[in-house]
Amino acid sequence: MRAGSEDEGLGALFEAALAARQRAYAPYSRFSVGAALRDETGALHAGCNVENAAYPVGTCAEAGAIAAMVAAGGRRIAALLVCADGAVPVTPCGACRQRIREFAGPETPVFAAGPGGVLARHTLDALLPASFGPETLS
Ligand code: THU
Which residues line ligand 1 (CB under 6 A)? Predict the structure, then answer.
């Protein structure tokens, strides 16, 4: 895999997502997910899925990582990685693609990883083309 400048520190991003995944609360789906992102300062923020007995109330790992970034003062996603153990590499769900879109640009890398390492690299624009974002409103 060719490493661009945004891909630097990919190992640390993977380790942060893997650690968060180990703390996932997923008693209903049994599908644990961790996500980690690097913000515009270089700081890492991680999250895991948090399910709920009222199923639709559960939250995705990406939403947790984004909330952690915003609470810490970060405002831009430089790179994001999702870690899960799916039959195919797990990419963010549709709603989370939009959540990422709020804080990222079209070329922002979104990595898919399994427990053993990174499996795929996408850009946000490839995952959410012709998207609606903050500048659409201005
Ligand atoms: N999930 C995530 O946390 N992120 C994704 O990108 C895909 C799905 C969670 C939601 C739910 O807790 C479980 O995985 C099964 O859908």
Answer: 26, 29, 31, 33, 49, 51, 58, 60-62, 82, 90, 92-93, 96
> In whole angstroms, how far apart are CA 95 and each of 5, 101, 129?
27, 10, 14
Residue 102 known to be catalytic: no
pTM over cut 0.90: yes
Asked if the structure places residue 2 within a domain, the reply is: no
Domain enclosing residue 61, as ranges:
8-129
The CATH number of the domain where 73 resides is what? 3.40.140.10
Dump pLDDT digits (tens) for 26-82.
999 999 999 999 999 999 999 999 999 999 999 999 999 999 999 999 999 999 999
Q: Residues 8, 15, 62, 102: which is the catalytic one?
A: 62
Q: Tell me whether strands 109-114 and 77-83 are parallel, antiparallel or unpaired.
A: parallel
Residue with CA nearest ligand 1 atom 14: 31
